[in-house]
Specification:
Elements lengths: L19 E3 L2 E8 L7 E8 L7 E6 L4 E6 L5 H16 L7 E3 L32 H22 L4 E6 L4 E7 L4 E6 L5 E9 L3 E8 L2 E9 L2 E8 L5 E6 L2 H10 L1
Antiparallel strand pairs: 1-6, 2-3, 4-5, 7-8, 7-14, 8-9, 9-10, 10-11, 11-12, 12-13, 13-14
């Protein structure tokens, strides 16, 4: 729906395009499951010129509809057509500004924006000769490592935190392997869910929503590498989550 007016339906797992004539300015876009008023997915967009295009990727889960904006670059011909239509609208004696709008919903992997990552190489540090035996040094290092691990274990009950960072809001999973739970929450509302799990992240951690027909699986994207997690939803679509600091994720959870 746009500004409260229904404009059409999108079949599950498909893509659709709608062309509208709208006045310049801000408009509200709402997606709802057929037959349900809640949950819904909401976002807004601003029409500035004739020929403006807007694309969105929609993911429906049991208790949430995710809406993510996708940037599109108009081709040269579209830009020419848009300019011609804009000139025509300016000559319209009624004075109404109009614009075209396109929407598309895709059930596929989200498009992620590329981010440059700077890698800082450690500069070699010349070590002074130690008077202590090598064995003694190794023991001290082992003690230090053990203390750090204990300190980290006491600081949080969660072993892992993963986030899917999007343009309008973010989604998180905090994973407690001792209690075998996954805490799921987003920055777009104050709700959170603590869900029981079975399995492991290497071979697949099954998240149980209390419905045997609605289960999700969390698994390392690459075996032995915990930096990226793949969430497979009940429809078989895969969504990528990136590892984040546990303390940072907990801070987001309590600050909403």
């Amino acid at each position: 729906m746009v500004d409260g007016e229904e404009i059409g339906n999108i079949e599950h797992g498909s893509e659709a395009t709608f062309e509208l004539r709208l006045t310049r300015g801000q408009h509200e876009l709402v997606f709802e499951k057929e037959g349900y008023s809640e949950p819904d997915g909401r976002t807004s967009f601003v029409v500035e010129d004739a020929g403006d295009k807007f694309s969105y990727e929609i993911k429906c889960t049991r208790n949430q509809i995710e809406v993510e904006s996708i940037k599109e670059e108009a081709d040269d011909q579209s830009a020419i057509d848009a300019e011609e239509e804009d000139d025509f609208d300016r000559q319209d004696p009624s004075g109404d500004d109009t614009a075209k709008k396109e929407e598309s919903a895709k059930e596929e992997d989200p498009i992620e924006s590329a981010e440059d990552e700077a890698t800082v190489a450690d500069e070699p540090i010349e070590e002074e000769a130690s008077a202590e035996p090598a064995e003694s040094t190794e023991k001290e290092e082992a003690k230090t490592t053990s203390k750090k691990k204990k300190k980290k274990a006491k600081s949080s009950k969660y072993e892992y935190a993963y986030a899917r960072l999007m343009s309008s809001y973010d989604l998180y999973y905090l994973i407690d392997l001792d209690e075998m739970t996954a805490t799921y929450f987003g920055t777009n509302d104050s709700d959170s869910m603590v869900l029981p799990c079975t399995g492991d992240l290497e071979n697949g951690l099954t998240v149980d929503y209390g419905d045997e027909d609605f289960q999700e699986t969390l698994q390392f994207k690459t075996s032995g590498d915990d930096s990226v997690l793949i969430l497979t939803d009940p429809d078989g679509f895969e969504w990528e989550y990136t590892k984040v600091d546990v303390a940072d994720a907990e801070a987001v959870l309590v600050s909403r």
